[in-house]
Amino acid sequence: MLDYAAFPQQRQELIHRRLLKNGSVVCAVLAEELNVSEHTIRRDLQELSQQGICKKVYGGAVLSALRNDNFVDRKQSNYDEKKQIAQKCIEFIQDNGCVFLDASTTNLALAKALPKEIKGTFVTNSPEIAVSLLQLEYCEVILLGGEIHRDTGGCIGGMAIQQIQEMIFDQVFIGGCAMDHEVGLTGFCYADCEFKKIVIKQANQVIVPLTKNKISMVARYVVARSEEIDIIVMSTALDATLSSQFKNNIRFYHTNQEK
Asked: What CATH number should be reported for the domain holding residue 51?
């Protein structure tokens, strides 16, 4: 058996493989398994974090998310999975409610999937989502204004923020780049993440549609802590170990599950 205490490069390669497989690692577990001190593992994680491979969290580390392309390019990524998640999200939308859809590609899939007979008010900061919502005959559609941010595909500036602060939402559907049980929902664009935080403050219920490639990962800026999220909708169920790590307030749903 390899003496990992004597071979730091091989030790870090093993840790990297564990991060890719599980999304996170725990210092104490690795230290015992590899027969090294927790201090040694923390040094390894520091080295890996400097390479951009992971982000250190209390007691261990989580895999770093990769920065996404702009809104136009992301629309085709995981397209079928997003459509499945969108169909599940429809089950949670309250009739005659006031619902906010932020500028995410999964929310675009949701807007396109909404049944024609649905009633209510839909607010969005995405012109493309607004165009899809206009196909709904019985819905009021409100598009927030201002400059359109190219990467996010939505308005996230002062005008949009001012409008949001005058609204109260029954539900908001918020996208993100990564989700971790300790750090919460995170993203790469600082202005967009700050905009999402303001939206969440105006919401009675926060729903996060999440593709499976974003779970147990961390991006650069926090959007919402786990305790601020009510529902996460995914295409597949989390395994029991990972599910148990999340806050009890979050309800997880997947596309093959009854509401």
From this structure: 1.10.10.10
